[in-house]
From TrEMBL:
Gene Ontology molecular functions: kinase activity
Function in brief: Catalyzes the specific phosphorylation of 1,6-anhydro-N-acetylmuramic acid (anhMurNAc) with the simultaneous cleavage of the 1,6-anhydro ring, generating MurNAc-6-P. Is required for the utilization of anhMurNAc either imported from the medium or derived from its own cell wall murein, and thus plays a role in cell wall recycling.
InterPro entries assigned to the protein according to its UniProt record, in alphabetical order: Anhydro_N_Ac-Mur_kinase, ATPase_NBD
The protein's Enzyme Commission number: 2.7.1.170
Protein residues bound to ATP: 10-17
Protein name, UniProt field: Anhydro-N-acetylmuramic acid kinase
Gene that this polypeptide is encoded by: anmK
Catalytic activity: 1,6-anhydro-N-acetyl-beta-muramate + ATP + H2O = N-acetyl-D-muramate 6-phosphate + ADP + H(+)
Highest taxon in the source lineage: Bacteria
Record-stated family: Belongs to the anhydro-N-acetylmuramic acid kinase family.
């Protein structure tokens, strides 16, 4: 049994999530603590700048350093709030910030300087979780499925675990051991965030208030849902900016745009069911989207079975991805699989991640 730390900076660019777990890298996992360190607006803008101009290497280098130092800060805060010493923790799983993800070109880039994080924290760091999977013919994403399946081990199946972050991803867990299917569903909150930011300067549609006062433009929604991605069978995964919707939404009010994009996220989840081996008896939702009552209510009515936030099972829906990379870091150290043909399309179960040892610093 090991104590592991996981760090995640997700596609919604809202901050660093840091989680501590105790795990055997198999079926045992216990949450020990969680911290989130929100990014100030100015840094979020700089991150957006890198997403828009990933080839500006001077900017990328600068932002990577700041990003990594913010992660080191999150580590210190989590150690302080859990009362743990760094010597108690075997390693940090450091996901980094996805800047670009293009599985068709076998490219995925998670920004983050593992050597700097190791120096700053005095801890071993496992990083670069996605490359090995891509080299084995996989999408390099999603990687949360094995962790979702472990969390769901005692729950009635088939079950769907849905993450609504910047992008949406789902894990279908079937009744037999190892029965699992996963893929990115479509947009999560990123398109809504971008729209709301452009139209009102706010960072998100807090509690779905704009969407609740808007009307879905069904013609625009149909056009958005006619994107070929939704007809492609899994394995499949997305970049934060895979869907370009600005032109579709031209002329819509802030409220109607928010309502239509919220319905787009929901419609994409509904379409995901087409690929499940059998219908889930229940959906458990994690990620920031579960805080949006308009999204949750529409999911409930469209999916027709129980849709609940993962808190209904006592999980922390904000911590799950950071916990996942703590869990995967241990599996990486032990040479175990991080992904399967049915979760990323890799040709075989593949391990992955690279270890940066503190002694090397
Ligand atoms: N109260 C709320 N009302 C509406 N939306 C919310 C609320 N709280 C969070 N969100 C949404 O959740 C998003 C953050 O979700 P989360 O932290 O799960 O994303 P992420 O981990 O960065 O993304 P990914 O899982 O794609 O890597 C915010 O950008 C916002 O859009
Ligand atoms: C390339 C990348 O960073 N993808 C993220 C993104 O955010 C959600 C979805 O798209 C998922 O595929 C993935 O994150 C989680 C942690 C995953 O790998 O499971």
């Amino acid at each position: 049994m090991d104590v592991m730390m996981g760090l995640m900076s997700g596609t919604s660019l809202d901050g660093v999530d840091a989680a501590l777990i105790e795990t055997d890298g198999e079926r045992f996992v216990r949450s020990l603590g969680f911290e989130t360190l929100p990014y100030p607006d100015a840094f979020r803008m700089r991150l957006r700048g890198v997403l828009e101009c990933p080839d500006d290497t001077a900017l990328a280098k600068d932002v990577e350093r700041e990003l990594t130092l913010r992660h080191a800060d999150a580590v210190q805060r989590l150690l302080a709030s859990t009362g743990r010493g760094r010597e108690e923790i075997r390693a940090i799983g450091f996901h980094g910030q996805t800047i670009r993800h293009d599985p068709d070109r076998q490219q995925t880039w998670q920004m983050g300087d593992a050597a700097l994080l190791s120096r700053e924290t005095g801890m071993d760091v496992v990083h670069d979780f996605r490359t090995a999977d891509m080299r084995a013919g996989g999408q390099g994403a999603p990687l949360a499925p094995l962790y979702h399946a472990v969390k769901a081990v005692r729950l009635p199946k088939p079950l769907a675990v849905l993450n609504l972050g910047g992008v949406g991803n789902v894990t279908w867990v079937g009744p037999e051991d190892g029965d699992i299917l996963a893929f990115d569903t479509g947009p999560g909150n990123a398109l809504i965030d971008d729209w709301v930011y452009r139209n009102s300067g706010l960072v998100c549609d807090l509690d779905g208030k704009l969407a609740a006062h808007g009307h879905v433009d069904t013609e625009v929604l149909q056009a958005l849902l006619s994107h070929p991605y939704f007809r492609v069978a899994p394995p499949k995964s997305l970049d934060r900016n895979s869907f370009v919707v600005v032109e579709n939404l031209q002329g819509l009010s802030a409220q109607d745009g928010a309502a239509t994009l919220t319905a787009f996220t929901v419609g994409a989840v509904v379409r995901a069911q087409d690929f499940f081996p059998s219908p889930p008896v229940r959906w458990l939702v994690c990620g920031g989207g579960r805080h949006n009552p308009v999204l949750m209510q529409q999911l409930s009515s469209e999916l027709g079975v129980s849709v609940q936030a993962v808190e209904s099972e006592g999980w922390n829906g904000d911590a799950l991805e950071a916990e996942c990379f703590a869990y995967l870091a241990l599996r990486s150290l032990d040479g175990k699989a991080l992904s399967l043909p049915s979760t990323t399309g890799a040709s075989r179960p593949v391990s992955g991640g690279r270890l940066y040892r503190v002694a090397a610093a």
